[in-house]
Every structure is written in structure tokens, then in C-alpha cells.
Amino acid sequence: MSPSSASTGRVNILVVDDVPSKLMSMDALLSELGENVVCVQSGADALRQLLEREFAVILLDVNMPDMDGFETAGLIRQHPRFRRVPIIFMTAASDDTHALRGYSLGAVDYVLTPVVPDVLRTKVRVFVELFRMADELKRQAEERVTLAREQAGRAAAEEAARRSALLADAGKEMARSLNLEATAKTVLDLLVPDLSDAAILRLGRDGSAVVYARHRPDSDSPGELGTEVASAMDAVAGTLGRQLVVDLDGARESVRAIACPLFARGELLGVLAVAREPASASRYDGPGVALIEEMAGRAAVAVDNCLLYREIEERDIRKEQFVAMLAHELRNPLGAISSAVGVMEMVGGDPGDRAREIIKRQLQNLSQLVEDLVDTTRITTGKISLARSAVDLAEGVTRCLRTIEIAGRTSGHQITVDAEATWVHADSARVDQILANLVGNAIKYTPSGGRIAIRVRPSGFAPSRTGACARSRTTGGGCPPRCSTGRSSSSIRRSARPTGAGEALESASPW
């Protein structure tokens, strides 16, 4: 007997009897059903067959040597796979006790032999049809499970594709501009209202952090949402940048608020937080949280690019300003040197000595300016070093006027000087540059024959701090707005602290 297969649709029927003639008669009797009849002569063989294939019904003889039908039925019922297999006991003895024992072992029927063929075939056919129906239901259930899995997989693939497309579009939108404010607006536009009802982007970790916020225009409680999102942000900031999922309603399967840190190049740039309204049907599940995390990662990259671009712009501006200032400052020592050389060619003696002194000092200043111009690294980072020493502002003014007089730039102006010994701790070359600009602008914007008064004196600005002031007053109209002084009365002023041997100026530059 060959086992039944799915291709033929035949069902297995197991017949167990120790008498070969009975097995042959049962095989002939059941062959009309068109199913697969399996005949064995012992309970042990029956158990082996059950382990190899499934049976619709078992016809089991009660009286068998070694292992009778009741013992075989008991072993069958002990196995979880065979507890529901129908068993029909067959015996020639009409004993009610045996019948009750058979039913207690889960038998569905107790048939006396010799059997009526039509009756037995009818009973077996019922169990065969039940088995076939159960098998069909099982197959349909498996098909439904497979279909559900395929649909879930297809939906997951579609969701992953949609998420990838969304993140790709978001990355493109965030990268459109290198302006920080425009990028922050783009990030919030991408989150509200499609992915959240409210969102806050906070950049910076200290009290001066910049905060950008957005909520859905038709929101019922924007204030409440803002408070919830801010609480989430404070919580994530307190955990030093770890992601925080906030369960605002006590629901475990979904959450309403998420706060994610914005990391770039190993630094925490800020925090991005989103929230849903209490009445909203949408919540953040596992994929939703992952999507917000991805958006936060792309936002961190975009914000970092904006900050880097701003830093590069600021460095370029500082470099351009410095180069422009340096080009302007180079003209002063070069002009003085040229004039001094002319004097040396026309006259000798004391004027020549004075001219050589001026040339020597201006060459030192010129060398310092050239060194500053070459060192571009310090220029771009705004870290130009100062060679500080004790400098007398009164002597600086004298040197400045001497250089201007030899250069012939006084143009008939009446210049008076009221200078007291005023010591500051500053860079001598920078102080000379400032004084040259101060007096040069006064001469430039004062008509010929006008008066210029220069006064240098110590000055106190607070009980615990002192300073120095160099001021020029002219009878002219003053510098235009683009000029470094910007008014008729020009001055240099910086606060300083006492040094014990006098008054020390911390720094000197146009005020």
C-alpha cells in the first residue's frame, strides 16, 4: 500500500489486526472508498506507521498478542499529535466492560465482528470526509497566513521605500541653503504637520541657546504641546544627549513625544523634539521613532554645515578686514621713509640724523606689518599676537608729529600738544599705528590753517580701574561715517588696572 499524497488527494486509513485473513478482508471491504488502506499486524507496527504519516481513522482489533488494542490505544493517546485521531475498536466479544474501557480511551465507536460491510464503510467514510475537510481548512489557514505574511512584507517594503524617499527628499531640502535660520525653518516645515503636531529645535547647550518652534496651525492646545516638548528637551539635555522617548499618557505601545540629540563631528549641537496632541490618533511606534531619529541625524548634518559655512564666512571677513587695514597701514611707514630719504638727499647734519632715526623705526614697523601679512593662519583665526611692553603715549605722539613734519603733511595747520607722561602696557608698533591714524585723520579733515589740539593724559574710569586717553580736537568738519574715528573729536581709550609702578594699559585700539 502506498501512502496518500497531496497530488492524488487520497486519505490514509490504518487497520490493525493480528490475523492476516481479517486484514485481507478489511482491505477488500474498504477498497471501494478509493482511499489508501494501510494494514499492520501489531500495536508496535501501528505506532511506527503513525509516526511516519497521518491517518483519518484507525480500525483497531481488541484481542492481539503482546500488546492488545486497549494498550495500543493508551499509547496512541499519550502522544500530542495523535490525541484526536478517531479510533474504532473491533472485537468478536460482546462485553459491556470492554466497550466502556474502549470509550474511556477516546474511542469513537465499538464494532462487533463480523461487521456489516456497508455500515462499516459508511462510518469510515464519515471520518475520511471529516479528515479531508479539516485538512482543507488547515491548508486554507496556511494560505491565509502566507498571504498575510506576504501582504505584511509588501507593506513593510512599501513603508521602507516611502521612508527612504521621505528621508532622501528631506536631506535635499535641508541641503538647499547654508543659512542657519532658513535651514531651521526647513527642518520644522518637514516635521509639522506631517510627522508631528509640534516641534522645537534648540541649538546650543548654554543659556544663550537659539530656539526655533513650530506647531500645527489648527492645533487645539499649542501652549500645552510646547510645554510638553520643552520638558522632553530638558530631559534629554539632562541625560547628556541620549535619545528620550516620552510617554505622556501612560500608554506602553506608543508615545506622544520624542527628543533626539543633534550630534555632528563628536559635538552636541542641540536637541530636536516633536510631540503629538492628546486627541491625535497618530502615535509614535517603533518605526515612527526610528524615522524621527533619522530626521534628527540629517538635521544635525545640515545644521553643522550651516555653522561651518558661517565660521568660514567670518574668517574670510576677518581676513579681508585685516588685509585692507594692513594695506592702509603700510602706506604710513613707506611714506615716512620716502620723505626721510628725500631730506637726507637735500640736507645733512642733524636733520639727516633725525631722518635716519625715523627710517630705522619705520622699518621696524614695516617689518612687523609684513610678518602679520605672511602669517595667514593667525589672521583667519583672529589670533594676532601682541608684543606688549611699557609704552609712553606722550613719546608716541612726539614721534608721530616728527614723522608727519618730515613728510611735509602738516599743510600749514596749527598743532598744539599737551602731553603728560602716560605709561601703558601695550604693543608699541600698534600704538604708533593708532596714533598715526588719529593724527593723520585730524590733519586730513581739517582745512589748511586750521587748529589741531592733541592732549595725552592718564584717565580713571572706575574706582578700581584706571586708563589712558589720547585725544585730538580739530576745527574741521570731522571724518565721514566710513572713517575710523567718525567724529571731529577722536580718541583712544581703554580700561586698565594699576601695576604698582604706574598705570598699565591692557590694550590700545580706536574706540
Could you describe the 3D structure shown?
The chain has helices at 20-30, 43-52, 69-78, 96-104, 117-174, 180-191, 222-238, 286-346, 350-374, 376-380, 393-407, 428-444, and strands at 12-16, 36-40, 57-61, 87-91, 109-112, 198-203, 210-215, 244-246, 257-264, 267-275, 388-392, 414-419, 423-427, 451-462, 465-474, 490-498, 503-505. The chain is an alpha/beta fold and 511 residues long. It folds into 3 domains: 12-139, Response regulator (Rossmann fold), CATH 3.40.50; 173-308, GAF domain (Beta-Lactamase), CATH 3.30.450.40; 386-511, Histidine kinase-like ATPase, C-terminal domain (Heat Shock Protein 90, 2-Layer Sandwich). It has a 5-stranded parallel beta sheet, sandwiched between helices. It has a 5-stranded antiparallel beta sheet with strand order 7-6-10-9-8, sandwiched between helices. Strand 9 and strand 10 form a beta hairpin. The longest helix is centred in the middle third of the chain and has 61 residues, at 286-346. It is rod-shaped, with a radius of gyration of 51 Å.
Structural class: alpha/beta
Our measurement of the CA-to-CA distance between the termini, rounded to an integer number of angstroms, reads 112 Å
The tally of helices reads: 12
| Mean of residue pLDDT values | 77
Specify the biggest β-sheet. 5 strands, parallel
Q: Write the element-wise H/E pattern from the N-terminal end onward.
A: EHEHEHEHEHHEEHEEEHHHEHEEHEEEE
User: So, CATH architecture of the largest domain?
Assistant: 2-Layer Sandwich
Strand order, largest beta sheet: 2-1-3-4-5
What would CATH call the homologous superfamily of the largest domain?
A: GAF domain
What's the β-strand tally?
17
Helix content: 40-55%
| CATH classification, class level of the largest domain | Alpha Beta
CATH domain fold name of the largest domain? Beta-Lactamase
Beta-strand content estimate: 15-25%
Q: What is the count of distinct domains?
A: 3
Q: What is the radius of gyration?
A: 51 Å
The coarse silhouette is rod-shaped
Could you name the ranges where pLDDT drops below 50 across 5 or more consecutive residues? 1-7, 236-242, 461-466, 481-511
